[in-house]
């Protein structure tokens, strides 16, 4: 039985509905779902409005905040690439249109495969550009780590250490004040 940790995010349309439908689409593979967190759009620290103001140009509208969550899933015989294929399928079902020229564009649904554990419960490590495992930037992203620690508080990210330690170090620690728990929103599956 392989397990995977998936990071879910949405900042377009009915954000909570997109997350709920993604969890429902994972079906019986869902083991546990984190709480929901509202986070600023990525990348942080956008100084474009200040730069534009110097030139008397109207600032573009800042993208909406994200709702983020983490989901731990498991299924017999599902390899890492099948988790990725399922993630892409769920994104398309939510109306996600990928724009290679703007990797930080707002999106209806974004699902990243953060970690996969094999049948022996060992982390899968891959440097394939299509699916790098563990996710190469997970250790830098509070919006990934904060929901993850809800469901695996003692987890370690290979090559980076314990999640709780990562949450206390910059740049993650600097981003944590911008993350707001949303206990009023639930996305767990009924299955």
Overview in brief:
The chain is of the alpha+beta class. Helix content is 28%, strand content 24%.
Describe the structure.
The structure is a single chain. With 191 residues, the chain is α+β, with helices and mostly antiparallel strands. The chain has a single domain, classed as 2-Layer Sandwich (Alpha-Beta Plaits). It contains six helices and ten strands. Strand 6 and strand 7 form a beta hairpin. The protein is globular. The two termini are 19 Å apart. About 6% of the residues have low confidence.
Rg from alpha-carbon coordinates: 17 Å
Helix content: 25-40%
In terms of structural class, how would the helical and strand content be classed?
A: alpha+beta
Low-confidence stretches: 46-57
Major sheet description: 6 strands, antiparallel
Termini separation comes to: 19 Å
- Kindly state the number of beta strands: 10
H/I helix tally = 6
- How would you describe the shape? globular
Secondary structure blueprint with pairings:
Blueprint: E1 2-10, H1 15-26, E2 30-33, E3 37-39, H2 48-54, E4 66-75, H3 80-93, E5 110-117, E6 126-128, E7 131-133, H4 142-151, E8 156-157, E9 161-162, H5 163-168, H6 172-175, E10 180-181
Antiparallel strand pairs: 1-4, 1-5, 2-4, 3-4, 3-10, 6-7, 8-9
Helix pairs in contact: 1-3
